[in-house]
Amino acid sequence: MSKKKVDFMCTAFRDGFQSVYGARVLTKDFLPALEAARDAGIDYFEAGGGARFQSLYFYCQEDAFAMMDAFRETAGPDANLQTLARGVNVVGLESQSSDVIKMHAELFKKHGITTVRNFDALNDVNNLIYSGQCIVDAGLLHQVVVTMMELPPGCEGAHDADFYADTLQQILDADIPYDAVCFKDASGTAVPSKVYETIKRARKMLPKDAYIHFHTHETAGVSVLANKAALDAGADAIDLSMAPCSGGTCQPDILVMWHALRGSEYELDIDIDKVREAEEVFKECMSDYFLPPEAVAVEPLIPWSPMPGGALTANTQMLRDNGIMEKYPDMIRAMRDVVERGGYGTSVTPVSQFYFQQAFNNVMFGPWLKIAEPYGQMVLGYFGKTPVPPDPEIMKLASEQLELEPTTDPPLERNDADPTKGLEAARKKLQERNLPETDENLFIVATCKDKGLAFLEGNSELGVRKVDKQAEAAAAEAPAADPNKSAEYTVTVDGKDYFLAFNGNNVVVDGNVYQVSLAERSGSSASDGGSAPAASTTATTVVHAKMPGVLLRSNVSRGDRVASGQAMFVLEAMKMEVPVAAPCDGVVKEIMVQPGQQIANGQDLALIG
Fold it and tell me: Which residues form the Pyruvate carboxyltransferase domain (predicted)?
C-alpha cells in the first residue's frame, strides 16, 4: 500500500523567528540557513508578514520589502513563499482603510510572495471579504483562515466544531475567493479530537479537491497529536519548523514529525539527512542570539491562559526590557478573565496582544481599573464582531474610560471615512518630512506610523538581542568579588566631587565614617503606584512613573502650570501608549527625563511645586 505524501510549509524563518526571538532577527544572519534548507529540498516557506513586517522597522533597522526580495533570491524562483496577513489589519495592529489593504496585496506580489494566509482573529468573516479579493486580484494565492483555540477549562459558548463549521459556511456564503483553507491554532491549545472533528466536517463541506492546511504550535505539548488528527481527518498540509526555532512555542520540528509518522500511512517527502544538516547550519546562524528559556519549553498551564507562541516570547522580552519579568506568572493567571469577559476572540495577533495588554494592566494597576485602549476598542466593536457578546460590565467600563460608544459599523467603512487613516494621510506625513513618496514608503507609514517614519528618517532603534560571548567569557574568568571590600564612588554634587565608600553598615564620606542602616522607603511607593511627596520644606511633589517603559514624549516644559490629572508624559510600554498624569495642581519645577529614555517602574520624572 502506497503512503500518502504529506505537504508541509517550513515556518522557521517567520513564525519560528516570532515565537523564539520576538521576530527580531537580521536578514543577513539567517540567509545561509535558508540556503541550506533550500538545498535540502524544501520549497515551501513562510517568508514574512505578521510580526515579521513591523519588527524589522521597529527593532532591526531593516526594510521588510528588502528582506522579502532577499528571501526570494535565496529560495529560488520556484519556491512557494507565503506571508501572513490579518484581514483588514493586513500587517499592522490597527485595522486599515481600503487603499492600504489593496496596496498590501500589490506590494507583496511585487516583492516575490506567492501565497498570503489571511485570517481574522475574531472570525468575523466581514473582515476577510475585501482583503481576500485584493489578494486574488493582485495575482497571489489566497489561503483563507478559520482561527482556532481551546477555551479555558470551564468556559463555553464558542470555539467548538459547530462554531468552526459555521465560520467556514459564512466564508463560503460570502463567495470569498480562495485557493486553500487553513485552520490556524496559534496557541496550540485546540484539543486534537476537536481538530479531527472540525477538519472532518470541513472536508464534507468543501469541494472534493479543496486544499486544507492545518497550523498549530507545540506550546501545550500536543502539536504532533493534533497534526496527526488533522491528517487523519483529511488535511493536505501541516506546518513544521527547524531547530533552534522548533518545539516549545514554535511548530514541531520536521525531524520530530518525520519520526512520529514512521510506520504510519503518511510520510514526509524529504531527505531527512539533508534536513539534519540544514538544521546544524541554522543553529550556527542563530548561535549569537539570546534564546529565552520559555521559548523552547512546553507550558502545561497554557490551556488555562491561551497565548500564542509569538506573542508569549515577544511579551516576555518586553517584560525583561522593562525589568518586571517577575510579574509574568501573575499576567498569565490574569489572562483567563480577560479572554472570558472579552468575547472569546481567538488568541492570535492582534487579539492576543489585546488580551496580554489588559492582563498587564490588571496586574500593574488592579483588576479592571485601567482598560487597555485596544482591548476596550475590541469589546466595543471597533475591530468587528466578537464570537460571543463581551461582558456588559467590561463594555461599560471601556466606554467610560475610553469615551467611546459601542459600534456595529464595519471597520472597513469606518476606516475609509477616517481622514487620519489611509494613503493620503501617510502621504502628508512623508511630505512634511521631505521623504520620497514611493508606494513602499506610503505603506510603511500607514502600517507602522511614527516608528515607520523614524525608520525612513534613519532614526529607528536596534533592538536585536544577541549574546556578548566575549563579555560572558571575561565574566567567567574574572575573580570573584571580595565581600569584605568596600564599594567606592565619586559623587559630584553641584560641581563638587565627594569620595563615598560603603562597607557593611559603615559609610565613609570624605574621610568621615558614619554608621547607617538601610530600609525600604516608607509611605507611598512605586509598588503601589502612589506619588511620594518631597520633604515639606521644599513644598514640591515628585511625579513618578507607575510602570516601566520608554518615554515617548513630554507634554510639558519647566515653568508650565499643570492641573491634577493632566497628562504630563507619555510612556510606551507593552506596545501601548501610557499617559503619566500630574498628581496635583502646580508649576513644573524640574523635568528629570527626556524622550527616548528607558524609564524604570517608580522612577522620578518631574517635580511640581
Answer: 6-276
What is the number of structural domains in the chain?
A: 2
pTM: 0.83
What DSSP letter does each residue of 52-115 carry, written as one string?
Answer: HHHHHHHTS---HHHHHHHHHHHH-TT-EEEEEE-GGGTTSSS---HHHHHHHHHHHHHTT--E
Indicate whether 281 belongs to any domain. yes
Longest CA–CA span in the chain (Å) reads 91
Final residue in a domain of this structure, among 254, 272, 297: 297
Bond preceding residue 153 cis, omega within 30 of 0: no
Q: CA nearest 342: which of 377, 288, 310, 390?
A: 390
The whole domain housing 593 covers 541-608
The residue with cell 515565537 is 19
Angle (CA) 409-415-418 rounded to 5° is 110
Give the CA dihedral 156, 157, 158, 163, nearest 10 degrees.
Answer: 130
- The 3-state DSSP class for residue 443 equals helix
Q: Where are the beta strands (DSSP E) in 425-540?
A: 487-493, 496-503, 506-509, 512-515
Which three three-digit cell numbers place residue 453? 517614519
Buried b (16+ CB within 10 A) or exposed e, 492-501: eeeeeeeeee
119: which DSSP letter? -
Type of residue found at 434: N
Is pLDDT at 242 greater than 90 in this prediction?
yes
Query: CA–CA separation, 148 vs 163, rounded Å?
Result: 10
Residue 395 DSSP symbol: H
What is the average per-residue pLDDT within 543-553?
A: 81
User: How would you class 538 by CB atoms within 10 Å of its CB: exposed for 0-12, middle for 13-18, buried for 19 or more?
Assistant: exposed
Is residue 518 scored above 60 in pLDDT?
Answer: no
Number of CB atoms found within 10 A of residue 327's CB: 18
The C-alpha angle with vertex 45 and arms to 146 and 52, in degrees rounded to 5, equals 75
C-alpha cell, 364: 500593574
Residue 296's nearest CA partner among 24, 19, 9 is 19
What number of helices (H) and strands (E) belong to the chain?
Answer: 20, 21
The answer to whether residue 164 sits within a structural domain is yes
The SS3 assignment for 153 reads: coil
pLDDT 10s digits, 486-498? 455 666 655 555 5
* Chain segment 333-348, per-residue pLDDT in tens: 898 899 999 999 999 9
CATH label of the domain that carries residue 554: 2.40.50.100
Distance (Å) of CA 463 to CA 280, 316, 406, 437: 26, 14, 37, 27
Q: Report yes or no on 147 lying in a domain.
A: yes
The CATH number covering residue 102 comes to 3.20.20.70
Q: Which of 297, 325, 355 marks a domain boundary?
A: 297
End-to-end C-alpha distance for the chain, whole angstroms: 85
Tell which residue, 221, 202, 205, 222, has the closest CA to residue 213: 202
pLDDT one-digit tens code per residue, 412-455: 999 999 999 999 999 999 999 999 999 999 999 999 999 999 99
